[in-house]
Specification:
Layout: H1 5-23, H2 25-43, H3 54-60, H4 62-80, H5 82-85, H6 99-108, H7 111-129, H8 140-161, H9 169-185, H10 216-237, H11 245-262, H12 269-280, E1 287-291, E2 294-298, H13 306-317, H14 322-325, E3 329-333, H15 350-359, E4 366-368, H16 376-395, E5 407-409, H17 411-422, H18 426-438, E6 444-447, E7 454-457, H19 459-469, H20 473-482, H21 484-487, H22 494-501, H23 508-515
Parallel strand pairs: 2-3, 3-4, 5-7
Antiparallel strand pairs: 1-2, 6-7
Helix pairs in contact: 1-6, 2-4, 4-7, 4-8, 4-9, 6-10, 7-8, 8-10, 10-11, 13-16, 16-17, 16-18, 17-19, 17-22
Length: about 525
């Protein structure tokens, strides 16, 4: 074939192979599984609830696309070995198109699955961004990672065809990549960023995008270098004669190793100092808005979330006497980094937070985190905020530099605080019931952003509140306002609080057992 016609024949073959790849059963099965997973997630409120944080959702598009990557790898490998598996290998020697050009056509056929992955990643991100409760902004490098992984897998299938023609090689390669991703997800040292996607710790609370330290750009460069090396390897094995190919292959291999190692660089000192400053002095990095008598302060990306916080503060204040309702309150968003160092919760910097609040004119600000969701952890965070705001209302103002209360809530104040928090919204009521089902002994404990600082309520008080939630909120609220002085008195017992609010009185033995060995027993 003439040199002028060879490229056209190569592109014609690439178009045919691309269409075959898109119709390949392996890729179609992967697409079906991807669509089913997405549909199931949407039917359950989305993969991470109805409150998406876009700087987290961008990386959450990557793992589902591994399905397409598996389909692309198997499909391109079978396509590149088709003639040999069908016994037509000897015919390759008489074909006019050079073997390396046929290999190039198979490599080009890996592009359409990658383009399909890009469309799916963009569609998912647009779906989350359209949510009225979405906050933050996605990273282009994180969004590009999934499609590049699919492209890498397609090229890996072609390269693998030049090592083995066994039809089982593709599925075995998929299992190998899956094992590498799993090791990274489980935290096996030295595996997370060598895998196609770096699975992060999903138990941590979301961070403002400026504080995130994922080497997304470096990882994308690593994937690009590996993809380029696979392409050149396949072409060299297919007999391409260009002198620059082998040196370029060696250069890309070295680059892939170097860039891959660069992903493991520790957090720079200036970034660590910035994180610590944001943790200890969040007020310097936030914007505030005042609605009625409550000032809400949040990191700029999370400022739309204040509408959800207001739903709880309004729900609490609506049930208290007018004099308490007209006080001045503040809510401040905070982060707490590395709350579980070596398996143990660290104390939160309460004194530093109190000084920061006083300096910014929001003394006694109630802490709220960046997590807000409908799963168990998200509901616990929502309930924790509601209880702390209710405790601020029930306990009244404190010294400007005093840290928030911590420890065990007792007697009538525990009942009053927990009921105000739980009845504030339907979500807080569901959160209390859910936490009660998951708690041992009937009591509940609520931490502050995963730190050692907590508030707990014993089982008798929780039982009274759960009974009150089954009664009309207006009726209970009227009783609460009428008996407010007694209900906020630390000397009032749980039993008397139940009588004042019209709930069944817990048995004396249950009350004594719930308070045994605590300071509540001394009251």
């Amino acid at each position: 074939m003439s040199a002028e016609r060879a490229p056209r024949a190569q592109w014609a073959l690439a178009r045919v192979e691309a269409a075959r790849t898109l119709r390949h059963p392996a890729l179609l099965t992967a697409l079906l599984l991807y669509t089913a997973l997405w549909a199931w997630q949407e039917g359950n409120g989305g993969p991470h609830g109805p409150y998406p944080v876009l700087q987290d959702e961008d990386r959450h598009t990557q793992v589902p696309l591994l399905l397409l990557a598996a389909g692309a790898l198997v499909g391109t490998h079978l396509a590149a070995t088709r003639m040999h598996r069908h016994g037509a290998g000897p015919l390759c020697g008489v074909l006019a198109l050079h073997p390396w050009r046929r290999t190039a056509a198979h490599l080009l056929a890996a592009l359409p699955p990658a383009a399909l992955a890009a469309v799916l990643a963009a569609a998912r991100t647009a779906r989350y961004a359209a949510s009225p409760d979405a906050v933050g902004s996605p990273s282009p490098a994180e969004l590009a990672t999934g499609p590049v992984v699919v492209l890498l897998a397609g090229c890996a299938g072609v390269a693998l065809a030049h090592l083995t023609r066994s039809a089982a090689a593709g599925p075995l390669a998929v299992l190998l990549l899956a094992a590498l991703v799993l090791c990274g997800a489980l935290g096996v040292p030295g595996t997370r960023w060598w895998a196609p996607v770096g699975v992060a710790d999903e138990w941590t609370d979301p961070l403002p995008s400026a504080l995130m330290h994922r080497p997304a750009g470096t990882h994308l460069g690593y994937l690009a270098a590996v993809t380029g090396a696979l392409v050149l390897f396949a072409l060299v094995r297919a007999g391409a004669r260009a002198r620059a190919l082998r040196p370029a292959l060696a250069l890309l291999a070295v680059t892939a190793v170097a860039v891959g190692a660069a992903q493991f660089r520790p957090l720079p000192d200036d970034a660590a100092a910035h994180r610590l400053d944001v943790e200890r002095r969040p007020g310097d990095h936030q914007r505030c808005r005042t609605v009625d008598r409550v000032t809400f302060c949040a990191f700029p990306e999370f400022l739309p979330r204040t509408a959800r916080w207001r739903g709880i503060t309004d729900g609490v204040l609506a049930r208290v006497p007018t004099v308490e309702r007209t006080g001045r309150y503040a809510v401040r968003q905070r982060i707490f980094l590395d709350g579980h160092g070596e398996g143990f919760a660290r104390p939160a910097p309460l004194a530093a937070w109190a000084r920061d609040d006083a300096r910014h004119g929001t003394p006694g600000a109630v802490t709220v985190g960046t997590r807000w969701d409908t799963d168990a952890m998200g509901e616990d965070a929502v309930l924790s905020f509601a209880v702390r705001f209710a405790d601020r209302v029930v306990g009244g103002p404190r010294r400007p530099d005093a840290p928030p209360r911590s420890g065990r809530l007792c007697g009538a104040r525990a009942v009053t605080t927990l009921w105000l928090a739980a009845q504030a919204t339907g979500q807080t009521a569901n959160a209390l019931r859910s936490l009660h089902r998951r708690s041992f002994g009937g009591g509940i404990g609520l931490t502050t952003l995963g730190s050692a600082e907590f508030l707990s309520v014993d089982a008798p008080a929780v039982r009274v509140v759960l009974d009150l939630l089954d009664r009309p909120a207006d009726e209970v609220g009227a009783r609460l306002r009428a008996s407010w002085p007694a209900l906020v008195d630390e000397r009032t017992s749980t039993a008397r609080a139940a009588r004042l609010l019209g709930a069944p009185v817990p048995a004396p033995a249950d009350t004594a057992r719930g308070e045994e060995g605590t300071r509540c027993a001394e009251l």
